[in-house]
Design a protein that fits this description.
Blueprint (H helix, E strand, L loop, with lengths): L1 E4 L5 H8 L5 E6 L13 H4 L7 E6 L4 H11 L3 E4 L5 H9 L4 E7 L17 E6 L25 E4 L18 E6 L4 E3 L2 E2 L1 H14 L1
Length: 209
């Protein structure tokens, strides 16, 4: 089971986390988020990341040209689209070779059939809990609903994953889960991660998966 740690901001904290070798690290480019990095992110640091940790830029209904500029400036490996981006929007990124993780917020009556049009243009989906904010709500949704997903595109699972419930993922081995995505449950403050707890999580993932 791969691990993505999202909402990183502080350079020292980023370096500390790199020592744990997470598979993905996420950076939020959205000015309404308390974890927005646009005024603080060190481009030189990101452009010298080790190859084993891929960089994900998180965007919400961003201007396409501004998004492409950020991909180049920070050497982003993926963009994670957390807004209402259309199939046409995603297809334009695909056309220029930008790898995409498209986010969908899951509620009780979510209809997965609407995802099929995105399939040719995305590398992964990310399923998060439907809440007041666009991510970082710290609440899990009922993972049983994922059994109605056709599993054609691998996905990141997000929303309220913690040391207490990560073991429950053992019961979903038939699903096409590529990675788990954690954020607020492993923070000391918005954008500042608790490295010790993330180390515990990585140990749990290695033991169980």
């Amino acid at each position: 089971m791969r691990l993505k740690v999202c909402g990183m901001r502080d350079s020292k904290n980023i370096v500390q986390l790199l020592a744990l070798k997470p598979d993905y690290m996420g950076f939020i480019f959205y000015n309404k988020s308390p974890r927005d990095v646009q005024e603080v992110l060190d481009a030189e640091l990101l452009n010298n990341f080790p190859k084993e940790t891929e960089k994900v830029g998180v965007f919400v209904n961003a201007d396409l040209e501004e998004l492409k500029e950020k991909v180049g400036t920070y050497g982003l490996d993926y963009v994670q689209l957390h807004g209402d981006e259309s199939v046409e929007y995603v297809a334009e990124l695909f056309a220029v070779g930008i790898k995409v993780i498209k986010v969908f917020s899951i509620g009780e009556a979510f209809d997965f059939s609407g995802l099929d049009l995105y399939n040719p243009f995305v590398d992964f989906f990310l399923f998060d809990t439907k809440g007041k904010a666009r991510g970082g709500n710290g609440e899990a949704f009922d993972w049983e609903i994922l059994k109605s997903y056709n599993q054609k595109v691998p996905f990141f699972l997000s929303g309220g994953i913690d040391l207490d419930n990560v073991y429950a993922l053992e019961g979903f081995g038939e699903m096409n889960i590529h990675a788990i995505d954690v954020n607020s449950k492993f923070e000391l403050a918005p954008g500042l991660k608790d490295i010790e707890r993330i180390e515990q999580l990585t140990s749990s993932l290695r033991a169980c998966f």
